[in-house]
Amino acid sequence: MIRAIVTDIEGTTSSIDFVHQTLFPYAKQHLRRYLHQHADAPNVAAQIAATAALEGRSFASIDEAADVLERWIAEDRKATPLKDLQGLIWAEGYAAGELTGHVYADTPLFLRQWHAAGKALYVYSSGSEAAQKLIFGHSDAGDLTPLFSGYFDTRIGMKREAQSYRTILERINLPGESVLFLSDIGEELDAAREAGIQTFQLIRDAKARPFPGHRQARDFSEVVVD
Prior knowledge:
Blueprint: E1 4-7, H1 16-38, H2 42-55, H3 62-75, H4 80-95, H5 106-116, E2 120-124, H6 129-137, E3 148-152, H7 162-172, E4 179-183, H8 186-194, E5 198-202, E6 215-217
Parallel strand pairs: 1-2, 1-4, 2-3, 4-5, 5-6
Helix pairs in contact: 1-3, 1-4, 2-3, 2-4, 4-6, 7-8
């Protein structure tokens, strides 16, 4: 029996286009201004330092750091300091009413249904935990965060590595056979399966490439959680 469901966000609960056409451009548009205004804040300074460490060099100015981070956005890098800074910028946007988190119409319906059935719900996304809470807390279906028992991001490891999913199992204290992972990305599903977790691939649009060896669903109504 499935006791917990771990879900991806992009292409699974929410539109890929929302992330790439709304969130990423918003972060890029405000990044340089945000860094100049908040560079002395400990959490921002720490992410700038982490960015420099990943680049293997120091920055002579805030603008040099911004240049690197803007390039990472263009490359869709899954770097933790970038994801943390994006989350901070998006928090401003949500608070100002300039952003609303997109979720597919079936997402809140089935999250509530699974939660009511006693399934523990978790998120695992390359976006920071803070960004995950924002998209569900300010969703166009209202605040969905009370439905979730926890959130995981790249601090536990990359999403295409089996060890990341083993760490999730340790954190939620459940065996893999009782956990279901939902994603649109085959390599992520492969890694989860290697860790012993059950899987379902979401094929919500033509951009998703079906991967053999995983059950597939066009939306959450086709996901089997027995």
